[in-house]
Amino acid sequence: xxxxxxxxxxxxxxxxxxxxxxxxxxxxxxxxxxxxxxxxxxxxxxxxxxxxxxxxxxxxxxxxxxxxxxxxxxxxxxxxxxxxxxx
Length: 87
Prior knowledge:
The protein has 87 residues and is of the alpha+beta class. A hairpin with a 5-residue loop joins strand 2 and strand 3 (80-83). It has one domain: Arc Repressor Mutant, subunit A. Helix 2 (43-52) packs across helix 3. Helix content is 37%, strand content 11%. The protein has helices at 21-32, 43-52, 59-68; strands at residues 40-42, 72-74, 80-83. The chain is globular and about 35 Å long.
């Protein structure tokens, strides 16, 4: 079984984007916890949070994955993001 710990470094940053889809979901679940669900974010703020929590320098891909998998939603212009509560 894949675990999140396999892709985290000592600073609790994600070190790679795995091929395994179940492990990807674990990463997205983890990254989702780094956002405040009561706040509306601008794109740059989303990027800054993601930059803090991964090391492989692909925050645009992570941002898209979070939106595509409904952890975040964005307005039509892509400038504001809302974090969804996961139940």
